């Protein structure tokens, strides 16, 4: 399991950050109720979201937008094609939010009856599950119903008012959670760099219209989160002069500060150790990013080959033909050495 549990205090710090963002949300001051989390791979971003759901009982609606041809965990979510649709508009995403809140209300109410103690943790595990998990059918039902509701929804000039009413109804259910905070719900878009990649020459695309749609959500209990590995913080929270929205660049609205520190390096080490030429490979794997200590040896080798060739499809073909360039984990970690150290984008 590559989802390494972060140190306990980071869950609290992350929760307080989101809570304060939600409390401060007003359309007069902020552009939209969202923030970002950008950090290197293998540092526990996805696990942090799960701990938020499990420990703090926050409804985390998890959506992974990972490219469909790439390997990695978590897998691409069923709803990803809907979110990354290239001709999407603000109205399109407003329709998505309207459908999502309606389905969430019904789904959460059902989960509260079946899993009263760990409700949000169960919901998160359902939404992050893959096709080999028992709960995957529940995820399919959830997102299929969202898509059905989107198709049934008629375009309305008062769609923002409908979203406010739909979210008000959802809040009735959210208040049944054990979480005493006013912050109840996080809409998390993981591997969200693809939303930036789909921008037009005018920097208007999925991310531009999605965050405009988020403006319709009432204040106090909701935040959206965009997370990624490769994107820079400035992609999601650009400097005012570079923002594509005139409301930010000229009219004075501000963006929330990103959450960018996950200090989990060397967390697998039991005590400080001096690495020498005689150190075992298992000892070395426990240093740096926690992911190296948790994934299988053959996966480390495959990952190293992908980095050398910059071509996942070619590596897949080479495995099928049994043409493996790297034979040992030692060789793989030597190639991946620079990736064992901290990256802050």
- Beginning-to-end CA distance, first to last residue: 25 Å
Average pLDDT score: 78
Which structural category fits the helices and strands? alpha/beta
Poorly predicted parts: 1-8, 244-250, 340-345
Radius of gyration: 21 Å
- Total number of helices: 16
**Largest sheet composition:** 4 strands, parallel
For the biggest β-sheet, the strand order reads: 1-4-3-2
Strand content: 5-15%
Proportion of residues in helical segments = 40-55%
Give a count of the beta strands, DSSP E runs of length 2 or more: 4
Count of distinct structural domains: 2
- The general outline is globular
The ordered H/E elements are: HEHEHHHHHEHHEHHHHHHH
How would you sum up this structure, described in words?
The chain has 2 domains: 8-249, no CATH class; 281-340, no CATH class. The chain has helices at 8-24, 45-56, 80-83, 90-114, 119-128, 136-152, 159-174, 193-197, 206-214, 233-236, 246-249, 281-285, 291-294, 297-309, 312-320, 329-335; strands spanning 34-38, 59-64, 185-190, 222-228. Strands 1-4-3-2 form a 4-stranded parallel β-sheet. It has 16 helices and 4 strands. It is an alpha/beta fold and 345 residues long. The protein is globular.
């Amino acid at each position: 399991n590559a989802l390494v549990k972060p140190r306990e205090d980071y869950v609290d710090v992350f929760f307080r950050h989101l809570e304060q963002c939600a409390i401060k949300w007003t359309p007069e001051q902020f552009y939209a109720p969202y923030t970002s989390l950008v950090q290197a791979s293998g540092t526990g971003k996805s696990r942090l979201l799960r701990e938020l759901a499990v420990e703090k009982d926050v409804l985390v609606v998890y959506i992974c937008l990972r490219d469909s041809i790439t390997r990695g965990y978590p897998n691409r979510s069923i709803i990803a094609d809907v979110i990354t649709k290239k001709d999407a508009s603000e109205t399109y995403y407003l329709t998505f939010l309207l459908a999502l809140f309606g389905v969430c209300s019904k789904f959460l109410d059902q989960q509260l009856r079946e899993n009263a103690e760990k409700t949000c943790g169960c919901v998160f595990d359902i939404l992050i599950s893959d096709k080999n998990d028992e709960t995957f059918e529940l995820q399919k039902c959830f997102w299929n119903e969202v898509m059905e509701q989107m198709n049934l929804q008629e375009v309305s000039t008062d769609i923002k008012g409908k979203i406010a009413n739909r979210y008000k109804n959802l809040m009735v259910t959210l208040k049944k959670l054990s979480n005493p905070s006013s912050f109840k719900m996080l809409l998390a878009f993981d591997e969200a760099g693809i939303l930036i990649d789909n921008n037009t020459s005018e920097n208007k695309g999925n991310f531009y219209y999605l965050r405009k749609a988020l403006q319709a959500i009432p204040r106090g209990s909701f935040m959206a989160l965009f997370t990624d590995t490769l994107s820079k913080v400035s992609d999601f929270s650009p400097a005012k002069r570079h923002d594509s929205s005139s409301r930010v660049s000229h009219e004075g609205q501000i963006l929330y500060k990103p959450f960018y520190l996950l200090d989990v390096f060397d967390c697998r080490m039991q005590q400080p150790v001096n690495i020498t030429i005689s150190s075992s490979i298992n000892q070395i794997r426990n240093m740096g990013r926690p992911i190296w200590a948790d994934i299988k040896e053959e996966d480390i080798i495959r990952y190293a080959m992908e980095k050398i060739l910059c071509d996942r499809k070619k590596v897949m073909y080479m495995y099928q033909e049994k043409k493996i360039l790297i034979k040992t984990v030692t060789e793989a970690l030597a190639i991946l050495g620079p990736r064992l150290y901290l990256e802050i984008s």
